Every structure is written in structure tokens, then in C-alpha cells.
Amino acid sequence: MNQTNKIIQLDKNENALGCSYLVHNSIKQSLKIHQYPNSRPLNLIDKISQRNGVSPDQVMFGNGSDELLFMIARYYSSPTSEIIIPHSSFEGFDFAAKLAGAKVVKSPLNNFKINLSQISQRITDKTSIIFLANPNNPTGSFIAIEEIEAWLAELPKNIIVVIDEAYIEYAILDSSNHICRITDLLNNVIFTRTFSKIYGLAALRIGYCIAGETVIKNIEQYRAPYNTNTVSQIAASTAIDDFEHIKTSFLHAEQEKKFIYECVEQLRGEYVESKTNFVLIRFLTNMETLYKFLSAKGIFTKFFVDEHGVGFLRVTIGKHDELVMLFSLVKEFLIDVKGVNR
């Protein structure tokens, strides 16, 4: 165990600062446990639509954005279709494709970034969906909306493009005008977002998607009644209005990323610059062994192997003292295996 004798979780990309303190107060004041939740949280839908310049009929909520990905895959793909997913991307995409029985076609990254031209080269007449995470998980890379907009304009309109923006608030502090640029393309583009990351509501499982009205009606067929509960609806409605907490969380991530970069450089490792609340790192050692060493010490990270068989650790931006403890143990490990000079 580590010096604190407590579990340090740096593997799930949760907000180390938690949720807004206003959330707890709003739940206490508004919760009526004896009543069913709103099947469509209209107040929350109105907030999302106004912030993003779309109609309320273009917004749908899900039990986390995962549920929305599953519904999209079920409606728009089948065992005879193909779904394109970048290598080293959100594992929920593969699970959604598996549920639909579709064939997964992998597209390589370029220097840890999603390569849109490589994706285009893999499109066939069987392609039904393209899944993208932007920023990408686990690499943390980000594609500007202008580049995506130009790429989308060249794609066949019968292909659904799903852009999962779970970490968008860590890339663009104010993303309210982000989607407005391409509202005319929403008939085949779906944006998914979550309240699990910067808003700190991971336990409550609530997310939403923005798409064309026809697309929303199509995937709505697979939405169960009351798929989001009252607590999550109240919490999300409050959290989205607390911009100070969002800003504080953003700045915390920016500051601690610099600390991680410095630590990795001092230990002669490598990192991928991130637009999220996590960083992908590696050292000249067996990364799986390092991962197991840290886990045995009570510090949990996420171990990944890229398309070339190279191992990495994805480290969540935790509290500063947690990151200090992490790199103290990494240094201890590297010295023990003679990975760095004393």
C-alpha cells in the first residue's frame, strides 16, 4: 500500500474536485421520491438547446451517454453493416457495435491523433456508422471543429457520424457555440455528451445527444420510459449553470497536467499532450509491470496497449497530493529496475 494507506483511483477520469456544492443543495430542496421522474426533462432540454442554438426536438437524454451510443448502434446498424472506429479510442464504441452485431473496422491513428483521411479510406457501401471521440480517449488529442466540418462535408450523407464529446469542456471552456457551426449537417451527425466528467456527476448516469429531429425520433424508439431519474435531472440542471465550478475544474486540470508533464520529463518518459482531464504516459520499462506495481500499492491507473503493441498508462488528473504520490512510486519502480540512473 502507498504511504497514505488509502486507495487512489486515477483510472476512471472523474473530476477530482467532485461536483458543484450547489448540486447537493438543489437535490435536498427539490427531490420528491414518491413521484416518477419526467420522462423527458423539458427544463434541462431547454437549457441544452438554448446553449447550443438548436431546437428542443434535437436534444435527447440518456442514462449516461453510453445508453445513447447503444441506441444509435441498434437503430442505424445491423449484422450486415460495418462501423468504423479509430484504434485506441473509447471502448464503449466497440461494445455498442457488438450489441448491434455489426462488423468493426479499425482505422489507425496518426501520432496519437484521429486521422480523418484514413477513416474516409475505409468507407464502403456497408459502412453505417463512424464513431469518433473528440477529445479522444485515451490519447487526449483534439480535432478543431473547423477540420471536422470540412471532413463531414465530403462524406456520404447516408453514413451516421457520432462525435462523442465527453471531455469537450476540458478542451473548450465555453463550448456553447461549438455545435452551432454545423447545425445544417445534423441530419447525419450526432453529438453525444455526458455529465460524468467535468460536471462530476458520474454516479448519477446522465448524458445527452444533439442531432437532427428525424435522427432523434429514430433513436427515441429504443429509449425506455423514465431512463433518467429525478436526482440526475435535478443535479444536471444545477451543475450546468455553475460556470465557476466548471472554470475551477478546467483550471485545476490545466495546472496539474503541467505537473504531470514535468514529472514524466524528469523521469525520461514520454507523454501525449492532452485536451482532457487525463494524460497518456509511458517510460522505457515494461509498462504492464509498472501498472501492476502501482495497483499493488493502491494506486489505480488504466493500462493500454496501442495498435503497435506498445504499452501506456492513462493517468486521471487527480488531486495534487495523489499525483505526487503516483510519481514518487513511479520513480521508485524505475530505480529498482534500473530504468533511470540514480
Characterization of this structure:
With 342 residues, the protein is α/β, with parallel strands linked by helices. The protein has two domains: 8-16 and 244-341, Aspartate Aminotransferase, domain 1 (Alpha-Beta Complex), CATH 3.90.1150; 22-241, Aspartate Aminotransferase, domain 2. Helix content is 39%, strand content 18%. The protein has a seven-stranded mixed beta sheet, with helices on both faces. Helix 1 (21-30) packs across helix 9 and helix 3 (64-76) packs parallel to helix 4. The mean pLDDT is 94.
**String of helices and strands:** EHHEHEHEEEHEHEHEEHHHEEHEEEH
Return Rg in Å: 21 Å
CATH class of the largest domain: Alpha Beta
Q: Beta fraction of the residues?
A: 15-25%
Major sheet: 7 strands, mixed
What structural class should be given to the helix and strand makeup? alpha/beta
Counted up, domains total: 2
Calculate the mean pLDDT score and round it.
Answer: 94
Shape category: globular
Topology:
Elements: E1 8-9, H1 21-30, H2 42-52, E2 59-62, H3 64-76, E3 82-86, H4 91-100, E4 103-107, E5 109-110, E6 113-114, H5 116-121, E7 127-133, H6 145-153, E8 160-164, H7 168-171, E9 189-194, E10 207-210, H8 213-220, H9 230-239, H10 243-266, E11 270-272, E12 278-282, H11 287-296, E13 299-300, E14 302-305, E15 311-316, H12 320-336
Parallel strand pairs: 1-13, 3-4, 3-7, 7-8, 8-9
Antiparallel strand pairs: 2-10, 5-6, 9-10, 11-12, 12-15, 14-15
Helix pairs in contact: 1-9, 3-4
